[in-house]
Amino acid sequence: MRRIFFNPVGLRAGWRLLIFVGIFFVLQFCTDWTIDKLFHPQQTSFLDAAGLIENELQSLIEVLIATWIMSAVERRSLANYGIPLRNAFGRELFLGLAWGFASTTLVVGLIAAFGGYRIIAVALHGAQLWYFLGLWTIASLLIGFAEELQFRAYLLSTAAEGVGFWPAALLLSAGFGALHYFLKPHERWEDFASTNLLGLFMCFTLRRTGDLAFAIGFHAAFDFANLFLWSGQNASQYAVGHLLATDWTGPQWLTGGQLGPEASWMIFPVIAAMFWLFNKCYRQEKFPHDRP
Asked: Domain extents for the chain?
């Protein structure tokens, strides 16, 4: 019976994953129940930056608490799970931001080159421009931190102990894509495939850089550029307060349709190029870290 629960280094990875997920969902349920009872929040648009800030900050706090509890039980540092502590806003974060902006810009540029994208006008001016620029900057950073810590911190490092890094990365990236596919409206295979591959790319950046700073920056800038800067759709909606009035004309395979640029076929050669270039730039494997 002991062998079912324990191995030579302690409680098996699968059981620790279940405990972590259980803690996270209990925290989420309690927080949602409390907020609902005390504040009676109003339903907002899926792509409202103010609502996203609230939701992602809540998720970030919950995942940090769950990870901290498990780190105390396992007597490990948060850094052992890939969470950037000293360099959360250092060089790798800004490199990730640059890659995120560049990749989205390249995808939209390819769509435009084939006649699928056109800028009509700037939609925001004056104080409104600065207001929404600030909101979407904060919202995008929180999305990057919250989602990366949920999917590629404790979950990935612990699953890697059980099945190996790349099997764990493949499973969690498939789960990341599946959540998009099953929980968002108007989904197609292209969005499932692209989010799956992007999740795998961010696992790759963790493997080579040693922590999630680059992945957080990439994730934040990718969403910011898609939703605010180039003003694409996501789940049939445009972001509240997007920068540009745009025209997306052409077949779904080119423009992404209601799902936006991340469901365009143009994203797949860009992702392939990112894997190739990142492999050239970062040669050494630095994650997972050894147990203390």
From this structure: 2-281
Q: Which residues face 244 on adjacent strands?
A: 122
Q: How far apart are CA 174 and CA 25, in angstroms?
A: 20
* HEC letters along 240-279: CCCCEEEEECCCHHHHCHHHCHHHCCCHHHHHHHHHHHHH
Q: How many CB atoms lie within 10 A of CB 110?
A: 19
Q: 43-69: per-residue pLDDT in tens?
A: 777 799 999 999 999 999 999 999 999
Distances from the Cα of 57 to the Cαs of 31, 132, 141, 277, 281, in angstroms? Answer: 12, 18, 10, 32, 32
Comparison of pLDDT for 265 and 6, the residue scoring more: 265
Number of other residues whose CB lies within 10 A of the CB of residue 127: 8
Beta bridge partners of 246: 119
The span from the CA of 117 to the CA of 249, in Å, is: 6
> What's the gap between Cα 157 and its chain centre?
16
| Cis check: omega of the bond before 288, within 30 degrees of 0 | yes
Query: Which helix (H) or strand (E) segment is 234 a member of?
Result: strand 233-234
